[in-house]
Amino acid sequence: MKQAKIVVIGGGTGLSVLLRGLKTFPVDITAIVTVADNGGSSGRLRKELNIPPPGDVRNVLISLAEIEPLVEELFQHRFSSGTGLTGHSVGNILLAGMTSITGDFAHGVKELSKVLNVRGKVIPAVNQSVDLHAEYEDGQIVHGEAEIPEIGKKIRRVFITPEDIEPLQESLTAIEEADLIVVGPGSLYTSILPNLIVPGFSEALEQAKARKVYVCNVMTQPGETDGYSAEDHLQAIYNHSSPNVIDDVVVSQQMIPYSYAERYASEGAEAVMYDEAKLASLGVHIVADDLLYFDDKHLRHDAIKVSQQLLSRL
């Protein structure tokens, strides 16, 4: 039986969590991953070696890999000492090394995917180093993905330079051939939109025959989506692309326990609410369900439940 082709677009923790759930189902997965990070180990390697930042790609590779737990631990291990090594993860260094060997970041990702027995394809949104910028409501412009949430003002738009970059043909082909396209979950302005604003990317999504589903974040992100509703998230996506890039929106209707809400509030975050009528007025079908998983400190999307909801959209 032919497997359904699912394309997942985003970056950060949210994407990795979802992919761990999706890979347990008999589907053909392609992950298109943002490469706009300029902080930490990724930012240092990017600056020193002039390569796309490997951090988000590293996490996605691990989430889709079929490897022993110890190998995963090794890949994610960060050096805590050593001149020049402190803060770097083994996986980031391996991605940088494979890029040097193959002469191409996307090719390096493909070869490392074989080593890790990755279930599916992992494609960087672009195959070169790009810079993410944000313009705020007052006109101020800030440069760098890591700096964007630090300003604490409402973001009007984000954009990338250089402006003449192109998405990889492989990602456009995956979108064209997909049976289902999933956007998110993940940081709206720094993980999701950096993909959608790559020239030609939104047009490919508009023309895709597959159903396009946005998985909305459960909590707001301080400095990025303060006070945002699900409608605000979707409107920001429309503002950076078009209303034809999303058909369904997945939102959690589950009540958040007070202890978790209080902990998140102390960090400046709150639950993302939604108004059913307003969300529907944006031309999408609403998929609302109890979709949360709670660990000791954080709440996450339950990857299996979300995956089941997504697969029901096929």
UniProtKB/TrEMBL annotation:
SUPFAM superfamilies: CofD-like. InterPro entries: CofD, CofD-like_dom_sf, Gluconeogen_factor. GO terms for biological process: regulation of cell shape. Belongs to the gluconeogenesis factor family. The keyword Cytoplasm applies. NCBIfam families: CofD_related (TIGR01826). GO terms for cellular component: cytoplasm. It is found in: Cytoplasm. This is Gluconeogenesis factor. It comes from the Bacteria. Keywords: Cytoplasm. Required for morphogenesis under gluconeogenic growth conditions. Transmembrane segments: none annotated.
